[in-house]
TrEMBL record:
PROSITE patterns: SAM_MT_RNA_M5U, TRMA_1, TRMA_2
Name by which UniProt lists this protein: tRNA/tmRNA (uracil-C(5))-methyltransferase
Entry's EC annotation: 2.1.1.35
Transmembrane segments annotated in the record for this chain: none
Encoding gene (name): trmA
Physiological role: Dual-specificity methyltransferase that catalyzes the formation of 5-methyluridine at position 54 (m5U54) in all tRNAs, and that of position 341 (m5U341) in tmRNA (transfer-mRNA).
MF GO annotations: rRNA binding; tRNA (uracil(54)-C5)-methyltransferase activity, S-adenosyl methionine-dependent; tRNA binding
Residue numbers binding S-adenosyl-L-methionine: Q186, Y214, N219, E235, D295
One GO cellular component, as annotated: cytosol
Keywords: Methyltransferase, S-adenosyl-L-methionine, Transferase, tRNA processing
Record NCBIfam families: trmA_only
Cross-referenced Pfam families: tRNA_U5-meth_tr (PF05958)
UniProt keyword annotation of Transferase present: yes
């Protein structure tokens, strides 16, 4: 998003355009009107990444327009980022300006924060990190009350934790999440909370089991598990799986089995194409799946995984790309119909949108 796109006065019009776009994409499937969940106009983004641009003896937070890596746009604050990031930015800049141990060959800064107030700052360098850096970084972490991670080629030094702790409220219950540095997390915390509550309501209270594909760190898994008998969840990213396992333990949820498999591999397992050692001891036939929950990457579900979801009575689908969502619905539309849909404005002032649909067997 460029600075020129940030225009809170035009937010309602931009959101209306997204709503109309989603309606048009889902019109061939006779979808109901989408429920629309707005974002805050500013201070909504919990992550931010900046290059550091040097002019003379000073380094500035910088970003670039798409396609232009030579004309930096300097920032002293960043209104779409969380209030916590905006508070940290000048304090961090003052720290590197006062310390050559922190500033020498520093080229990138990344912030990760949470609604709960936790934070990590990642400092990226074109040099090895030495003892002087560690001493300065430990002092900085204490002053800013955040974790600091230093990255250089082949090296990562963690001062504090390598994850932030988030707390999200769903249907009156608070769930805690570990969100690792470098792993995917939803950038708009308040809208993420709205998505969780919508999915919780759309799933409903059930007496059967849930299959979840692309579960990440368990963002949806935790609250949805309280609505069903048991859950089989899959995720391919090792860091996300480790975070999800910690989140299950931290929240005392014991009806979830988590397997490190891709959606394509689980499709092969359920179709009995080939066995997987990571499924050893798991009796797939013991599950009574009544619903499948999917939150795929921008490419959507591949055709085989899409065919796998067809065998379920209900498909609950969260999408970050409405075009691939529409393509997947087209593949399923002869057996399933859209009974609910929603627009979640995770990314204000951009064309990107998050959406959700519930498909039920005809």
């Amino acid at each position: 998003m460029s600075r020129s796109q940030f225009d809170p006065a035009n937010y309602a019009a931009q959101l209306a355009e997204k709503q109309q776009r989603l309606i048009e994409l889902l019109a061939p499937f006779n979808a109901p009107a989408p429920e629309v969940f707005e974002s805050a106009r500013e201070h909504y983004r919990l992550r931010a990444e900046f290059r550091l641009w040097r002019e003379g003896d000073d380094r500035h937070y910088a970003m670039f327009e798409a396609g232009d890596k030579h004309t930096p746009i300097f920032f002293e604050d960043f209104p779409i980022a969380s209030a916590q990031i905006n508070t940290l930015m000048p304090r961090l800049k003052a720290a590197w300006q006062a310390s050559s141990a922190l500033s020498f060959k520093l080229f990138q800064v990344e912030f990760l924060t949470t609604l709960a107030g936790d934070g990590i700052i990642t400092l990226c360098y074109h040099r090895p990190l030495d003892d002087a850096w560690q001493v300065a970084a430990e002092q900085l972490a204490a002053e800013l009350q955040v974790s600091i991670i230093g990255r250089s080629k082949g090296k990562r030094i963690v001062i504090g934790k390598d994850y932030v702790e988030e707390k999200l409220s769903v249907a009156g219950r608070t769930f805690s999440y570990r969100q690792p540095e470098g792993a995917f997390t939803q950038p708009n915390g308040e809208v993420n909370q709205k998505m969780l509550n919508w999915a919780f309501e759309a799933l409903g209270e059930r007496q059967d089991d849930l299959l979840e594909l692309y579960c990440g760190n368990g963002n949806f898994t935790l609250p949805l598990a309280t609505r069903v008998r048991k859950v089989l969840a899959t995720e391919i990213s090792k860091s996300s799986v480790n975070a999800a396992l910690a989140n299950l333990a931290d929240n005392g949820i014991d009806n979830i089995t988590l397997v490190r498999l891709s959606a394509e591999e689980l499709t092969e397992a359920l179709n009995e194409v080939r066995p997987f050692r990571r499924l050893a001891g798991i009796d797939l036939k013991s599950y009574d799946f009544g619903c499948v929950f999917v939150d795929p990457p921008r490419a959507g579900m591949d055709p085989d995984t899409c065919e796998l979801t067809r065998r379920f009575e209900r498909i609950l689908y969260i999408s970050c790309n409405p075009e691939t969502l529409a393509a997947n619905i087209a593949q399923l539309s002869d057996t399933h119909k859209v009974t609910r849909c929603a627009l979640f404005d995770q990314f204000p002032y951009t064309h990107h949108m998050e959406s959700g649909v519930l498909l039920e067997r005809r």
